[in-house]
Amino acid sequence: MIRDTSAQDRPLSAPRHGKRRLLLACGGALLIGFAAWSLLPRMGSAAGSVSLSRLSIATVELGPLVRDVAGEGRVVAAMSSTLFAPQAGALVLEARAGDAVRKGQLLARISSPELQARLAQEQSQLDALRTELMRAEVEARQQNASQRSSLENARLDLQTAQNNLERQTKAFEAGATAGIQVEQARDALAKAGITLRHAEGNEHLRKDSLMFEVQARRQALQRQHLLVQDLQRQLAELTLRAPADGQVGQLFVAERAQVARDAKLLTVIDLSALEVQMQVAESFARELALGMPGEVSGNGQRWRGRISSVSPEVVNGEVAARLRFEDADKPEQLRQNQRLSVRVLLDRRENVLSVARGRFADEGGHHVYVLRDGVAQRSPVRLGVRSLDKVEILSGLKAGDQIVINGADAFQGAERVTIAQ
User: Fold this and answer.
1) Domain 86-110+239-268 has CATH 2.30.110.20
2) Non-local CB neighbours of 235 within 8 Å, separated by 6+ positions
3) CATH top-level class for 71-76+270-348?
4) What are residue 193's phi and psi, to 5 degrees?
5) H or E segment and range at residue 356
């Protein structure tokens, strides 16, 4: 019979810490299970998880919504006169760019020998026509005197013939002369009458002829006088003067340069009427209107203004608009082309539901992700007007809601996404 080893076995006592470890393991498993059970409602239908650090969150608020256009503008003159060369010639500048000038001050001269020579020729022709007019007037007076003398002689001949007829008639009645003498006296009287009538008619014709001749010479003189006046005006225009108080702006030609007719010479800027010109995007330009209030700032100061003009032309997707400073708020010591900040108020509304503007508004704006209990839920939304930093909420959200305004592209269109802290 083979003996077993029971006689050699020795019972061992259980370690003291075994129960404690078992209890700790069971408790940990229960905690993990409870945590997983609490997350099941959130992760039941969530399509993945995105870190909060990758997102931009904004809160929907109820308050004022200000729509404006902001940008950089440059100072321009509302009234800027450009002087052109009235005639070709050599230019002599009497002012330099940046010089302050007064109205009527000499700015430049243009030397035109051709115009001066033509004026001298036409002036000489004017003097000649004036002399011819005086000669024509003298000749007219002489011819009028000669015509009056002929008329007076014809009248005297008529009176003599009439007296001779009376004498011959009395002598014939007294028998002292023959009847033929009476007939001859009567014929002489008739002839003298015809001569007188012709002399009177010739006098009227001669007067009219002399009057027309003198009038033609006078009209020629007047025409030449107007020509000389026009040349004198052209010569006077060669002396260029400032059209208004202001400052000499840009010079387009150099000193002593030969300029062509109608060439641009220089500009004179009226510094008392400055405006600020800004470029506005075409989308905002449709809402700009004359008289809209604006604000101009620079050098630590602010000035009020209003839109004075909006260009009808679109250049590179932008429209030029000008703001005129208000009379009570005109700045001082501004310079042409100086850069300033400009802000134009388009609209202001009170008690508007709005949220900070982000990429969600530029990517359609029909859905947003609302953040609730660590989960971003995709919800429909309807947006309204937009400003530079806010967008109006018409429906789909309420005040206090938190939405994802940037970074929602990481959700890849999922309906629910868990947001990891």
Assistant:
1) no
2) 112, 115, 116, 119
3) mainly beta
4) -65, -40
5) strand 339-356
- Beta strand residue intervals within 19-157, DSSP E: 49-51, 56-59, 61-77, 80-84, 89-93, 100-101, 106-111
CATH architecture assignment, domain 49-65+350-420: Beta Barrel (2.40)
CA 409 to CA 78: how far, in whole Å?
Answer: 48
The strand pair at 367-372 and 258-259 is best described as unpaired
How far, in Å, CA of 66 to CA of 294, rounded? 13
Spatial contact of 280 and 294, defined as CB atoms under 8 Å apart:
no
Closest CA to 107 of 254, 267, 258: 267
φ and ψ at residue 412, rounded to 5 degrees = 55, 35
Handedness of CA 331, 333, 336, 338 (dihedral sign): negative
Instruction: Tell which residue, 276, 339, 335, has the closest CA to residue 98.
Output: 335
pLDDT in tens, 261-280: 889 999 888 877 788 999 98
In the chain, domain spans? 49-65+350-420, 71-76+270-348, 86-110+239-268, 113-235
Q: For residues 255 and 246, what is the distance between their CA atoms, to the nearest angstrom?
A: 21
Q: Rounded distance, CA 291 to CA 287, Å?
A: 12
Domains 49-65+350-420 and 71-76+270-348 belong to one CATH topology: no
pLDDT digits 0-9 by tens, 174-204: 776 777 777 777 777 778 778 777 777 777 7
